[in-house]
Amino acid sequence: MAREWETPDESVWGKSRGLDPGLPPYPLIRHLLDAAAMALHLWDAYLSENQRVRIAEGMGLAADLGRARAVVGLCAGLHDIGKLSGFQFCSSHGSQYLSAELRGDRAKMSTERFGHDVVGLQSVKRVLADLGLAAEGEFRAAERLAEVIGGHHGRFHRVENGIAPAFLGGTTWARQRAAHAATVCELLGAPGVPGAFKAPTAVLVTGMVILADWLVSQEGYIRERQRGLEPALADHFERSRKDAPRLLAEAGLTRVQLQRRGFTEAYGIQGEPNPLQRSVMDELRLAVGDGRRGGVFLVTAAPGDGKSETALEAERVLSQAFGTQGYVFLLPTMATSDQMHGRVAHALLRQCGEDAGLTLVHSMAWLDSAYADEDLGVQSVLTGEGDEAGERGRRPEADMRPQRWLRGSKRPLLAQFAVGTIDQALMAVLPVRHNALRLLALSGKTFIVDEAHAYDPYMQVLLGRLLNWLGAYGVPVVLLSATLPASVSDRLIKEYLQGAGHKSRVLSSRTFPAPYPGWLYVDGESGRATAISSARQGEQARARAMELGVAVEPVVHGSGGGAWARLGVIERIVTPLCGDEGGTALVVCNTVGDAQDTYLRLRERFDMRSHDEGGSVQLLHARFPGEVREARTREVTEGLGRGGPRPLRRIVVATQVVEQSLDLDADIVISDLAPLSLLLQRAGRCWRHENHWARHGYPDGRGRPAWASGPRLVVLDPIAGGGRVPEQWGEVYSEYLLATTSKALAGIEGGTISIPRGVQPLVEAVHGDNEDFDWNSPGGSEVKVWTAHKGKEVAERSMAGLLAVPRARSVSALHDLHDLPGEEDEWEVSTRLGADSVRLLCAYVQQDGRVTLDLEGEHLLPEAASDGRFPVSSVRQVMRRTIAIRSDWVKEADPESVAPPRSWTEHPMLGELCVLHQLVQGGTAQAMKIGGKTLRLDKDLGLVRE
């Protein structure tokens, strides 16, 4: 750096689109300094202590965190160096301000266009070498730094990807690349290139570069800077550093220190923590000891044992021990995420966390009632992505972006606290754009996964791959489950340890058995396993001891069946609720169609009033419009929740939406046959709060009805009487698991399951790695269903293994994270296998031809404004009325018959909808025939398909 370099030519522009057209574009050197300043502030104020340590270690700078910080700033400060190329001529407004010298050196410049991210990848190594910043032996690290710069638009490229050399221009352009880089390096204290730069570390740094770029590329901020540039670049850099805290705060990314409260105050729970929770508070800190690289904390306990609060207590210990800030709480479904978001919000408020960044993270999160319409608006981030395509060919910007910066696309996980679906985290290990940003977001928090048993083999592989990366980053992980087979937990723990640096051949000879109920902590650095003390485990087992009565009722689906007719059996079982004492029952069906039929039968028999009219029979499933489903979920959880008021009589008919994380208590649970782990989950909604009520009093002072002498699960088993799995169940569940469950239920001694002692043996019997199948069993059907089950499981694991990014320590070049053909983005890969889904809007065609959102005809379908944009409130009004359905339902439909209005087609959300145009006759919506079936939206039943 001793050599004198030219002054950066500020006619080279960094931002042009979206700025004041009456002023020169924003100079590139200024944008680079903005990004470098923001990256330094992110290091100081956004990264957790754990992240800083991991990044420094990966650069070989564990003893010099200051230099590691400066290297991160250098990466951000050089991220757009590729714009010093033919890129400058992709904007007529920008290029007209270029100096005569630069325009004069364009004569031989290639007219073929390349992305400036790829140009940066190809040119920065030469720039670093010219500046003397990459000493001998540091060229591999310099190449890694180039990969980071090439990946700042979210996708890593191959280093060998060529560009036309002429696109870089002549010597004038080369001198300016050096001048820009030299200025950035000088203001950062000339950190140079580190001697090492491991791939996992480079991924985190890339995430930081992306985040820094996004924060300083906000339209309002650049317009503000554009209007008043400091004469000296050093002064500009100093102002950028002073602006960085404000930008971070406005984005909702400022870290908040919670005032940790006692258990009762923190969670608003009456009474003392249970033995499981107390053991975490008393014993986990000792188990963690002086560990330095995170660990896995596995909690196993029956439904209703307070695992969520147990996880949050563990987070307190783990975050303090390992220097993480905040947590992400992940669940299987949007419905369970919505409910948990409310619980976490209240817990944060009780601990002075009202200013903490808390986000709800799933594809429809912005529709949740927690996000008010008035808080939504337009917020542009001028990333420059796609500028190279020219002004006419740019990818259109989304019409709707949340005003709160964190609610924009791909950002919510960056918040200090986040609650959402597991899918949002699994995207981090799929070859999609900005997976590096997701890994950055997750690596700074304690990572909590609820219902860890609820994922199929495909998702389990993806979860294992993510745990591998988190192990490499030393992130503390909490896994919660009531019914997790030992083989699955063992694989997940080993994936984490392998990421933390343990050899797979050593791990292959170890097992990590978890006590039930209880917890197991496995240290990431040493691999040492510590379990809950036997005394506390015994206390928990005794405190939650329950004899669950299990009755198997052979049933026949459809017409006929006599005394075994399914609907007749259900009617007989719930008849005691008609007495003066009333009571509550939960009926869980495997399909929406079965739930609708069951509801109609019970409503006709016990209460002709509909759900909305306050009837005592309620219906809940996933095929209601979003706003209706949200309201019904709230009504069901309030009616069967812990606090009351508890109804005298209530029958809730539902699908699988109630089996996970919904806090319900029924006097009896009736369920269609399902895999045993899920039956136990459903049974967890029976007498869930009995111990609490016995100590603190029943809601309204009304105890259990006399007919409910104990917790009881009734399983409607179509196999028990020699029948088969109903055709309408399709591929809902594996036929092998259903048959094995039926056999296990038949073998339960005395018709009772001792909870918690009897849970894990049953789970292992059905869901464990049982390879002792009897190939000589009579009849070929058992062999057939077993083979189909195992074949599907192997296929799912193989597919996930092929699609996921490599394990953290197996990455050689960063393009391994995107090494699939095509431009994969989030909508092109899936975190779940199964039928693709689309969102359906049920609209109403009135007799006068108007198309409305409501049956009454009061709300017309919204149209785009004259500028082609939609008010956010209008988009939300539409999307809250949509329903997710299988895409094959509309596959045979005439595309025009289900197409959205023409003005919607360019909108990123509305343009993807299918619209069911229901004719209104005599005040009633008529069913529409699509693909041999009819669809209609019934106010009480939801979407009906016949």
From TrEMBL:
**What keywords sit in the KW lines?**
Antiviral defense, ATP-binding, Helicase, Hydrolase, Metal-binding, Nucleotide-binding
Annotated HD Cas3-type domain ranges read: 21-215
Its family remark reads: In the N-terminal section; belongs to the CRISPR-associated nuclease Cas3-HD family. In the central section; belongs to the CRISPR-associated helicase Cas3 family.
Indicate what this protein is called per its UniProt record: CRISPR-associated helicase/endonuclease Cas3
Its source organism is Streptomyces ziwulingensis
